[in-house]
Recover the amino acids of this structure.
C-alpha cells in the first residue's frame, strides 16, 4: 500500500511553516487514520466478510468492534512493519550486524585520521567545510562516500584486534570523532580514557599515533572566526532586534550532568538534588549497569556452553570468555561480510539495514547534527569575511 501525498498547511496561517518533526508526526497520524478508513471500506465491500459477519456477530456492536480492531492492527503493521522486520532479523542474526558495525569502526578510524590531517591543513576533504562536519559524518559513516574503500590490509588489522587481548568494548568512549576530547585525553590523560580502544590498537599496529601531535590550525582559526561572529551578531541584533541571525549560543543538553548543574544553579531543594545524584550513581555510575549488561546481550540467544577460565575476579573471567566468544564469531563472519561489501551487496545480507538507520532514533540525531553543521558553516563564513574584510 503506497503512502498518500498530503499537503500539510494550516488554513488559518498558510504562510507559517510547520516544523519538520511536527509535520512528520502529523503525517504518520494521518497516514494511519487513512489506512484504517481504507481497510474498513474494503471489509464492508468484501462478500466473504459479510458471510463471516452474518455467521459470527450477534450485534452491530460486534461488527463495529471487529472492524476497528482489525483496521488498527493493519495500520500498525504497515506503519511499523519494516522496523519490526529489521528487529526480528537482527535478533536472529546478531553477529552479522556486529560484523557490519566492525566495518563501520574501520571507517571511523580512517575518518578520524583524516580529520587530524585536515585540521593541520595538510589535506582537503570533499564534503568537509568546517570541523563540525566530522560530527555529522560520525553519525552517517555508512554514507561517507569520500572515504576510501576498506582494504584487505585494514580488515586484517581489525581482525588481529579482535583476536588480541587489547580488545575492549567501546562503551566508555561516547564519540568517534570528538577531536578535542580525544586529543586532550592523549596528551593529558588523568583517568578513564575517552580514546576508543580500536584507535589505540590501530595506532600501535600502524605507528600513526603521531597524527595526534599535529597542530590544530583550522580549529584555532575557527575559534577566532566564531569570536568575531559573536561580536557581530550581538552588535547587529542591538540595532535590528527582529533580524534573523544564526544563534551561536551553546545548546543546553538534556543530560544528567546538565540537569544536576541546573538544580544547583537555581537552588532547588537539597533532597531533590541528592535524589537525582543518587539515582544517577546507582544506575549509570556503576560498571555493572552498562558493562556487564551489554556483555550478556551477546549470549542471550546462544545455547553453547562456555567454559570460564580460573580468575581471582569472576567478573573479569566472565567478560573475558564473553568477548572471546563474541569476537571469534565476528572474526569468522568478517571475510564473507567484507566480500559482500566489496560488491555492494550488504543490503541483501542485512535486509533493511539502511532503511532502519534512516528511521530509527539516530535519524533525529543526524538531522540535528546536519542542521548544526549548516548553521556552524554560516557563522564561520561570516566570521572569516569579517576578519579578512
Amino acid at each position: 500500500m503506497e503512502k498518500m501525498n498530503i499537503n500539510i498547511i494550516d488554513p488559518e496561517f498558510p504562510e507559517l511553516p510547520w516544523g519538520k518533526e511536527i509535520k512528520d508526526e502529523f503525517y504518520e497520524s494521518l497516514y494511519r487514520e487513512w489506512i484504517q478508513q481504507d481497510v474498513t471500506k474494503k471489509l464492508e465491500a468484501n462478500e466473504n466478510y459479510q458471510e463471516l459477519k452474518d455467521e459470527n456477530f450477534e450485534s452491530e456492536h460486534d461488527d463495529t468492534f471487529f472492524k476497528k480492531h482489525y483496521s488498527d492492527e493493519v495500520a500498525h503493521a504497515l506503519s511499523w512493519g519494516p522496523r519490526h522486520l529489521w528487529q526480528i532479523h537482527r535478533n536472529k542474526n546478531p553477529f552479522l550486524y556486529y560484523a557490519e558495525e566492525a566495518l563501520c569502526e574501520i571507517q571511523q578510524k580512517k575518518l578520524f585520521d583524516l580529520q587530524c590531517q585536515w585540521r593541520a591543513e595538510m589535506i582537503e576533504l570533499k564534503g568537509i567545510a568546517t570541523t563540525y562536519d566530522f560530527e555529522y559524518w560520525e553519525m552517517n559513516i555508512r554514507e561517507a562516500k569520500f572515504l576510501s574503500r576498506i582494504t584487505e590490509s585494514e580488515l586484517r588489522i581489525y581482525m588481529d584486534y579482535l583476536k588480541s587481548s587489547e580488545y575492549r568494548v567501546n562503551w566508555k568512549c561516547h564519540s568517534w570523532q570528538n577531536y578535542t576530547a580525544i586529543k586532550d585525553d592523549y596528551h593529558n590523560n588523568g583517568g578513564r580514557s575517552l580514546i576508543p580502544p580500536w584507535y589505540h590498537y590501530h595506532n600501535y599496529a600502524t605507528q600513526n599515533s603521531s597524527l595526534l601531535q599535529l597542530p590544530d590550525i583550522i580549529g584555532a582559526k575557527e575559534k577566532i572566526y566564531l569570536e568575531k561572529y559573536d561580536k557581530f551578531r550581538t552588535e547587529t541584533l542591538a540595532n535590528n532586534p527582529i533580524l534573523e541571525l544564526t544563534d551561536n549560543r551553546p545548546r543546553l543538553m538534556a543530560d544528567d550532568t546538565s540537569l544536576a548543574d541546573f538544580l544547583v544553579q537555581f537552588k532547588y531543594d537539597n533532597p531533590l538534588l541528592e535524589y537525582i545524584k543518587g539515582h544517577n550513581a546507582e544506575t549509570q555510575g556503576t560498571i555493572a549497569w552498562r558493562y556487564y549488561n551489554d556483555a550478556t546481550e551477546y549470549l542471550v540467544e546462544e545455547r553453547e556452553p562456555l567454559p570460564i577460565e580460573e580468575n581471582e575476579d569472576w567478573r573479569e573471567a566472565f567478560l573475558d570468555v564473553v568477548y572471546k566468544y563474541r569476537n571469534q564469531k565476528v572474526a569468522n563472519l568478517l571475510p564473507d561480510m567484507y566480500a559482500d561489501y566489496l560488491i555492494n551487496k550488504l543490503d541483501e545480507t542485512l535486509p533493511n539495514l539502511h532503511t532502519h538507520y534512516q528511521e530509527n532514533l539516530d535519524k533525529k540525531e543526524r538531522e540535528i547534527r546536519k542542521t548544526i553543521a549548516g548553521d556552524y558553516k554560516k557563522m564561520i563564513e561570516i566570521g572569516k569575511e569579517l576578519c579578512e574584510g
